[in-house]
Amino acid sequence: MKKQKKVQKRVLAIHDISCVGKCSLTVALPIISAAGIEVSVIPTAVLSTHTGGFTGYTFRDLTDDILPIVSHWESLNLQFDAIYTGYLGSFRQLDIMSEVFQRLGADGAMKLVDPVMGDNGVRYPAFSDTFPAGMRKLCGKADTIVPNITEAAMLLDEPYQEGPYTQDYVEHLLKGLGEIGPKQIVLTGVYFDDRQLG
Questions:
Q1: How many domains does the chain have?
Q2: Which end of the chain has the least Cβ crowding within 10 Å, N or C?
């Protein structure tokens, strides 16, 4: 009996490159690769540092490069088993992601959106107060979303509540996020007492 060749899964990670900070493609790429998955990347921006907690950072918008990359990959018949979006630096990028899902996703490709917008009750300064509505629309096209508590409140246009949280509040957030449209929700930053964070 002939041994079948194992096909390696391929993920497209669409995220910024933060030159300093434990986030962005600099973290996602090695973790996904270590899981034995082939990772391709489309950087959305290059920042000197991430936007949470730093000031005076530089920001190079790469929006105009995204669709030419997609077109080139399409000409090579590249398709991905999963497409993961992280930091998106503009409304245009939110709109472009829908096109990327359609053009580069293999049949049944998983679409995962990390709606990066803020943390600890504060919206990152790079985003306007209307950005969450655009992110909500993108989350409606995802299979899975992974917001933190701050981002969940923004997506639902509700005020942020500080923890520890109650089960009722967390279930309220999950129900509201589910109504946006994703099949799965992973809510991060949840804790029910000050000694545990999940």
A1: 1
A2: N
